[in-house]
Amino acid sequence: MTGAPPARAAGPLLLGVRHHGPGSARAVRAALEACAPRVVLIEGPPEADAIVRLAAEEDMRPPVALLAHAADDPGRAGFWPLAGFSPEWAAIQWALAHEVPVRFIDLPAANSLAMSAGKAPQGPSALPEPPARPGPAAPEHQAAPGEQEGPGEQDGPGEQSGPGEQSGPGAGSAERLRVDPLSVLAEAAGYDDPERWWEDVIEHRGTGGTEAFAAVAEAMEALRAEYGHGGHEDDAVREAHMRLRLREARREFGDEVAVVCGAWHVPALGERTTVTADRKLLKGLPKVKTEISWVPWTHRRLARHSGYGAGITSPGWYDHLFHAPDRPLERWLTKVAGLLRDEDFAVSSAHVIEAVRLAETLAAMRGRPLAGLAETLDAVRAVMCEGSDVPIALVRDRLVVGDVLGEVPESAPAVPLQRDLARTQRSLRLRPEALERDLELDLRKETDAGRSRLLHRLRLLGVDWGTPAVSRGSTGTFRETWRLRWEPELSVRVAEAGVWGTTVLSAATAKAETEARSAKGLAEVTELAERCLLAGLPGALPVVMRSLADRAALDADVGHLAQALPALVRSVRYGDVRGTDTAALEEVAVGLAERILVGLPPACVGLDSDGAAEMRGHMEAVHRAIGLLSETEARPGTAGEAETGTRAGAGAETGTRAEAGTGTAGQAGAGTRAEAGTGTAGQADAGTRSGEAGEAETGTRAGTGTGAETRAEAGTAAETDAGTETGAGTDARPRTGIQAAEPPTARPGAADGLRARWAAMLRSLAGRDGTPATPGLIRGRAARLLLDDGRLAEDEAARLMGLALSPGTQPPEAASWIEGFLGGGAGGGMLLVHDERLLGLVDRWLISVPAEAFTDVLPLLRRTFSAYEAGVRRTLGELVRRGPGAGGSTGGPGTPAVPGFGPGHDPDRAAAVVPTVRLLLGLDPAPHGNDTMEAAR
């Protein structure tokens, strides 16, 4: 659409364009240079007249968008995106460079936003267009209240909803009238792809000028004569306003007026109507107070697959075509080669040369004036990617679409919250980017801690710039991983959040306080408390804590309490990591845990299968929470620690650490050392006690296997877990199997006592084999939790399984117990692999199940064993095939063992992997060439 200078005709210069079309942009720029109008009118909201001059600022870099929103409801908003290759942007830049006035002539956003309030998502349409077939112009976006895809996301003309679409008798006829003008024109020209036709006729042609504009206008006039408004009745209102604005400009500047609008509207602007008729159409339109500003946009949001009604398939490709000074094909394929090389693909200059030749050859064979995107991608696939579509997907994502994010100057209008967010982003060196990336944070560093607080505060405000992700490195609580991507609609979310305050901190605090007062459930408040701690909102915590205490006191449902406890315990732990005072939270957490301890056993009675599954989830969550609470409680107040394995709970388990607090007795687990606090009794691993600070170690310890220990408490009692407990010469009680809970007065932390009492409660649930009202799923899971915690001996676990799978137990109940004990993908398969006694019990029980009951238990068993990894299932199959024996014996003295499944260790097989392991650990130098396999041998 570029070529000879257009001859001036009577009347205004009407330039019908395709939104986001580089060919249209070049033609508009050439036409304006040739005609030099005194004013430029552009399709867009007139409210933008006041800020259009910001487009000339050095810091303004497209893609950008005009954002208009209702002043009292920022969520009701509309976007008018502009890319560097958009004809409207080219017209704005030309006018500002030549000091020519720029005015927007579409229906005001005050009217269009008010009209959208009671309708389906809609927007000003320039040309009817289905999702996969862009026309010469298409609608800019406006969002309706409650729209799910985000502000600015809407259906374009020809999609499922659009301007003028309403439910009722006329809805079907309007839908039938919607057409794609490009499809009609392409079909008339013998093309089956409208996009390809547009590229051949407009984008790739070097001739045109006003003749091309006139040809497009003539085609649109014929289509409108055939199809009317194309199913969008609101176009009549918009076009009436455009005509009124055009008349005003002509009265002021004469006929030296240029109009840049969607080609679909050109016939309507040239139509002879009266001022009275046009004003009648605009009379009585609803109106709302609006605010408008510039916001950054992205190429990805210009793409049609994002849901943008005026979207194009290849914004990155179009941007390249518009800005490439010469040889666009060669420059594009050079970009592709650079991208593939950055991703470690072997691509050389020779590949680029051959790809250029192939693309030009394909274009000639297909009768195209220039190689288009289809030809370039075919050439890249064949020459650079060796026929693979995997790197082609990368090229499409990074280059064809692209992740370019525009910028707007600081002088652009913005709500105070947006300005505070921008200042905070600069101070934390956290730049918004369109490309998704992972951000690792170390909360021990001040800058990273500030970034974490900012992202958590924004999430609380509904601005999801970042989402928490699973860390690939350390899982410590001092590390966080975030996945960041800035989307244009987040600007609307920031404007919406501006009602809560003028800074991110004050807005997040105010919203948290409001949510705490309006929360309906206990779990909501505990989750909010956790979010407040993560976001660093000390001002909101008093309100949240009052709400939490009130709801915790009134809620008696064990399920609700169990849902609330994990988040509350995480809050206590995170607060400790971040240096926040969480004493009040810990007090509430301990109170909730106490109530769960009392209420859980009766709550497990009389449950059906669904209720039992839900209660199992609650029980597991509470178990983890109490463990975290114990760890949090045990850290402060210690004088010294020794660690060998896991930490000690109430009643110090085998292989734990010993802690000695000032003025209290120390404690040591098997294989650890005991450290005595100042002026207190020490302890000896051999079962002796020492009357002075110090330590005695003997290397062995009595009572191996059940956490035997000797503990001396200052002037109170001494206990031996495997034997008896003696208290001050009077109290003595036996302990066997699972440790009993200490009384609350005998331990320094409430959480440790909770852990011991929780273990006792689990033991009571696991042993309820004579209470059919307690589901087997619950009893089996209780036993498994005790076994994993080291509070249940393996012999005792085998005894419980034997009771649950005895002939007197109904097969469905036995299968339910197995699912509780071995299911959930929590290592149950490995438990069977390493303890063939349990595998033998399951095997023998399964053989004994009557045929008529087998169908009932099969779904439960399939659900249990299907959660195991493939390798675990294969190993179990081999063990069952050779016949596991009690105590882990083989199938018989004369039976050859299956490789890898024999008794004991196989030294030859173990030695075979040693070189590879040493190589992976960096202990040996890397071999060269084919020496790798030799080293493995």
Automatic annotation (TrEMBL):
It comes from the Bacteria. Residues 115-178, 628-751, 880-905 are annotated as: Disordered. It holds the Pfam family DUF5682. Residues 153-171, 884-894 have a biased composition (Gly residues). InterPro entries: DUF5682 (IPR043737), LolB (IPR050458). Residues 138-148, 635-662, 670-731 have a biased composition (Low complexity). Residues 127-137 have a biased composition (Pro residues). This is Uncharacterized protein. The lineage of its organism: Bacteria, Bacillati, Actinomycetota, Actinomycetes, Kitasatosporales.
